């Protein structure tokens, strides 16, 4: 049984749900069961144009709605998301495969962004100074940009749209959302709930599709800003093409995250947290740990401990409350991960836990079990490859400096963590490591909604990040007014 009401996938244009007339895109299967869910349309420039025109038409009046009134819709949305939490979590699990607990966790983080955006009447304020010269005052105000495009990946079907949407509309913009063509149902349900808030038609629009839809958004002259989250090659493309057509662009890309384990780390907690970080969401998190670097004697205990933790995880359908790890998103993704595990062995690693034969007790699902590769050589290509599956490499360094240097060499810079009981080691790590998000005894250092979701090097292209104050900066233009009102020009009363 699915919680998907209909296999049809519609676009939302100016408040109307319309059937896509674009060519068929990809066939969607429940990743845990292989059950068909529907077909994603490929998307077209004409459909994108219709959505952008609707958003553009809505902008003129939406931008004049007082900020305090705009956020009333978000208060309602927060309440609707809470009421529909279980239903939305099931939907995410059915189309993405993650466990119900993980789906609820993702929703929590999404709702947090709705809550923060409710503070826009304060967050959006500018500043002013009287008498910058005698009788002259200067004022900075923030104004919305216009139509903003939001393009999201498959791994967080609801949280990532909510990294951007609430801030974009609260600041007075209108939006065209293009969700991942691999998980279109959760976003459609989110937009139905947004409609239930009574938000004026056209303020938020939805257009489905893949590359054709993305490129049409990047080229559309009425789109002022693009928020993108996805893999690094596509992030580069979106950043280059969107910037070339004069848009403001923020692109969060892929990752290869390292965690450093020092000999003085608490063994039990460290192992548990790293296992969750590597294998949670079947490793399909941009903050998942991909490489553990043991320092000194940590090598002696960590390898066996993580092997035992990985082997004991229960893999299966995420709807089963006993499941600890679900499938990867598609059969193609499974084949890719399985092939990369093989390459790891070819490149010199020992496969101490091998998930290639795991079937999750459901023949047609796209399961691959937790896998641990030991001793992958530093120069092997897999050390630089984002696997995006439940595969952890364990490598060794003699010192913290050597571990930090390994991270420095990575082309990615999304996140890194250290596990230690030494404040001095932790401080040295956080001040020198070259990643945008850092965990100290934390395995998935996901920033709260009131902090920017950072990311450096090949993991981020742009200036302003998602969430919090960065989002307010991204979705607004600063206007500076310098004014003089000489007494002698005024009529005397
Ligand atoms: P993806 O790059 O394949 O797709 C992202 C979006 O781009 C989707 O909407 C997709 O339809 C579209 N797209 C795909 N190929 C395209 C192309 N050639 N041209 C134009 N648009 C295209 O990413 P994914 O597989 O959906 O998501 C997983 C990736 O996202 C991983 O690399 C992961 O690390 C990354 N991610 C990063 C963050 C972060 O905050 N840095 C967060 C989540 C996911």
TrEMBL record:
PROSITE patterns: ALDEHYDE_DEHYDR_CYS (PS00070). InterPro entries: Ald_DH/histidinol_DH, Ald_DH_C, Ald_DH_CS_CYS, Ald_DH_N, Aldehyde_DH_dom, MeMal-semiAld_DH. GO terms for biological process: L-valine catabolic process; thymine catabolic process. Its EC number is 1.2.1.27. GO terms for molecular function: methylmalonate-semialdehyde dehydrogenase (acylating, NAD) activity. Keywords: NAD, Oxidoreductase. It comes from the Bacteria. Residues 17-480 form the Aldehyde dehydrogenase domain. CDD domains: ALDH_F6_MMSDH. This is methylmalonate-semialdehyde dehydrogenase (CoA acylating). It comes from Telmatobacter sp. DSM 110680.
């Amino acid at each position: 049984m699915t919680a998907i009401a209909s296999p049809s996938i519609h676009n939302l244009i100016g408040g109307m749900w319309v059937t896509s007339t674009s060519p068929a895109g990809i066939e969607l299967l429940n990743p845990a069961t292989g059950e068909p869910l529907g077909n994603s349309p490929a998307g077209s420039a004409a459909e994108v144009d219709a959505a952008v025109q609707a958003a553009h038409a809505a902008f003129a009046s939406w931008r004049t709605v007082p900020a305090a009134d705009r956020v009333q819709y978000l208060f309602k949305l927060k309440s609707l998301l809470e009421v529909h939490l279980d239903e939305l979590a099931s939907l995410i699990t059915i189309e993405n495969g993650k466990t119900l607990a993980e789906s609820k966790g993702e929703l929590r983080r999404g709702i947090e962004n709705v809550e923060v955006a409710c503070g826009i009447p304060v967050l959006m304020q500018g500043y002013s100074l009287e008498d910058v010269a005698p009788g002259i005052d200067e004022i900075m105000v923030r104004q919305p940009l216009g139509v903003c495009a939001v393009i999201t990946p498959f791994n967080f079907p609801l949280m990532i749209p909510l990294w951007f949407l609430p801030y974009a509309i609260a600041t007075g913009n209108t939006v065209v959302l293009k969700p991942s063509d691999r998980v279109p149902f959760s976003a459609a349900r989110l937009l139905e709930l947004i409609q239930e808030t009574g938000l004026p038609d056209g303020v938020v629009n939805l257009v489905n599709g893949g590359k054709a839809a993305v490129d049409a958004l990047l080229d559309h002259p009425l789109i002022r800003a693009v928020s993108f989250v996805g893999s690094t090659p596509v992030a580069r493309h979106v950043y280059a093409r969107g910037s070339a057509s004069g848009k403001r662009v923020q692109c969060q890309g892929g990752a290869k995250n390292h965690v450093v384990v020092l000999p003085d780390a608490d063994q039990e907690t460290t192992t548990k947290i790293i296992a969750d970080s590597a294998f949670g969401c079947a490793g399909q998190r941009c903050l998942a740990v991909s490489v553990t670097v043991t320092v000194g004697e940590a090598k002696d205990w960590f390898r066996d401990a993580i092997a035992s933790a990985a082997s004991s995880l229960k893999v299966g359908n995420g709807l089963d409350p006993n499941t600890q790890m679900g499938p990867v998103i598609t059969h193609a993704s499974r084949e890719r991960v399985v092939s990369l595990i093989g390459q790891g062995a070819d490149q010199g690693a020992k496969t101490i836990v091998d998930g290639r034969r795991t079937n999750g007790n459901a023949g047609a699902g796209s399961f691959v079990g937790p896998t641990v590769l030991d001793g992958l050589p530093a120069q092997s290509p897999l050390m630089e490859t984002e696997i995006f599956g439940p595969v952890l490499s364990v490598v060794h360094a003699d010192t913290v400096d050597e571990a930090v240097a390994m991270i420095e060499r990575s082309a990615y810079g999304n996140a890194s963590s250290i596990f230690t009981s030494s404040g001095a080691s932790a401080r040295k790590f956080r001040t020198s490591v070259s990643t945008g998000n850092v965990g100290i005894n934390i395995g998935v250092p996901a920033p709260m909604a009131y902090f920017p979701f950072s990311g450096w090097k090949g993991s981020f292209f742009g200036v302003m990040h998602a969430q919090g104050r960065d989002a307010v900066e991204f979705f607004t233009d600063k206007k500076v007014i310098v004014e003089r009102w000489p007494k002698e020009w005024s009529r005397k009363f």
